[in-house]
Write a structure and sequence with these properties.
Strand content: 5-15%
Radius of gyration: 27 Å
Shape: elongated
Number of strands: 6
Distance between the termini: 101 Å
Amino acid sequence: MAFNHKLNNHGFSVIEILIVLIAVGLLVGIVAYTYAGIRARSRDNTRIADLTTELQTNIEAFYSQNMYYPSLKDMNSPSWRTTNLPKLQSNAIQDPSWTPSNKTCTLNNQPILLKKAQPGCYGYNPTNNGASCESNDTTCNQYTLTASLEQGGLYVKTQLD
């Protein structure tokens, strides 16, 4: 008499579990990578909007009234900005990745502009035909706004002609 042993396999083998874990791990990795890219693009879009919509618009409005561009020192003075650029939102000079611990572009725990952008810091460089105009800011007739983009490169805006 031969015994017919039927095995009831109600579980998963180790190989099947490993395959599922690897597949889930790959999907989680792809989603995390995609999400990080979306967030970086979002911060880059904020940088571009800050430079074009906020900073450039307000700087050009100041120029149309005064016939010169503000100096870097003026732009980094909160009281000067409040008086002379009242429509400029205070966070417009703050890169989305800026933190108070970023000592490169922070003064009194507030963001400031640099002559040229660095990661976490916007750049503003006013000039008089390419030469510095800091000592006589009423001669500033050009400027360059810059932002360091996470997706690579430097975003640059210059005065309107």
